[in-house]
## 1
Amino acid sequence: MVWTSDFSTQYPYDPDTAVRHFEKVDQPLFNLTREIGEYRLELRSDMTPFEALLRSIVYQQLSGYAAKAILGRVLELYGNEFPQPKQLITTDFDRLRACGLSQSKIRAVWDLAEKEDAGSLPTPGNVQCMTDSELIDVFTTVRGIGPWTVQMLLIFNLGRSDVLPDNDLGVRRGFKVAFNLNDMPSPEELKQHGERWKPYRSVASWYLWRAADPDFRSKN
């Protein structure tokens, strides 16, 4: 059984095809999709990579509520819109600090803006022509941006179908639940097992995130 979702028209891949693939290659994962139901990943495709990475830096190591408030104060500086790189570069340190950004995050957003302004980062058009690994390589040159952050960009903003964030604690916890394991899988174990999910590892990741949710675990 698969589910046709109202969300499906926004994806550059077909979640139902992914679920049918899991049925053929990994029965426990397929069983998880039946328990959870339709695929409802919400894409933020209206954001440019620059905007998405700026948001990610703000959100790092904060609760969603606190990060949303800080991002809101930052955007207020620019008319409640994401700034252009030059605007961000020339914004006084104290004004950004007053929004709630730490010193390290201010340096990170400045580095992002400087690289974007200098043309060191791919344009939205060029991004579409680059592989996942190429994008990870180029965006991790930005201060404060690691592979996990770029993987989130690939899944939630660019709609890439085959990304497995094997270091993500939520994905690993979800795998433990779905496969009824006693111990948490290592990133390498998850990566090796996930080879069979290609080319739909993003879809698998979403279902594993749902399996890690406390509300789902309380029912099992």
## 2
Amino acid sequence: MISFALRHRFPGIALDMAFVAPTPGAVVLFGPSGSGKSTAVAAMAGLLRGGSGRLEVDGEVLWDSAAGIDRPPERRRIGLVFQEARLFPHLRVAANLRYGLRRAAGDARGIGFDEVVALLDIAPLLGRRPHTLSGGERQRVAIGRALLSQPRLLLLDEPLSGLDAARKAEILPYLVRLKTHLGVPLVYVTHSMEELLHIADTLVLIEAGRVVEAGPLAELSGRGDLPLARRDDAGAVLDMAVEANDRDRHLSRLSAGGLTLEVPLVAAAPGARLRVRIPAREVILATDAPSAVSVHNILGGVVRAVHPDPTRHSALVEIAVGDQVVLARVTRDAVSRLALAPARDVLALVKSMSVDVLR
């Protein structure tokens, strides 16, 4: 478990944030620029002076201002990856990586050199110098160096913010591999929805120095009262299992907690776990079952809540389907015509082509 709290005052903003998250897994701090995300990371790493707070990782207290505990950065066993890779320009990639090994505590045992090289697919880069690498390659090496320091916690402060779309697409699969193959918990800072959707297990929403809400991504993405729902790309995120692949129909059937979806055929065997997103703007609501339609997914559910969105002259409707929640953006007129209100039975129509299979 990660337990973190911070109080700090800067000119123009007062930070007062706290969250708890399970380990292992990835915690994403998400919010607009200037909201305090990077300051929180600096406090975790021991790089922020002043203020008060507490950091506990898997039962070990690294900082507790009230108790007078404040381990220096080098004794916290925390790996840190910045927006810039900050590799040593005079050293080849292999030597940059081995520098991480030299920083490891003497009794620390964890991931080895060859394992890191294989995990991040950087064997072809070992003999090269940093100036010959692409931005994505440099960040992969920086992550590898941080991992080889054998951290109990890995902090990544907007590591993809300086990369173009192609380089981001190149490195995102490695970040997903990192969190699924290792037991090292991650805290990841971003204001990119794409990165959030791929990486987060626990989501911490931050605005103006405050934690608006924290919890599992699947839970928070289905709430129409949170800042995520105000975005054009709002939608429910579900972790689902592949039930079957129908190659004749070119469809796969996915399931999670009483909700079943048919999506275009996926390259994953039955039993595999996938993360999908159902965009709120792609969900159609009905009170009677339609006939002769192309939509594959007609989900029976119950309205959980209706949240007006005056800026878009619309509303966000939370629909409980089994143990899951789907979010739909509809017009205010549709809310009136269908008498949408909590406890109302509805059908959520979801085109198979509109479901985003993230990983």
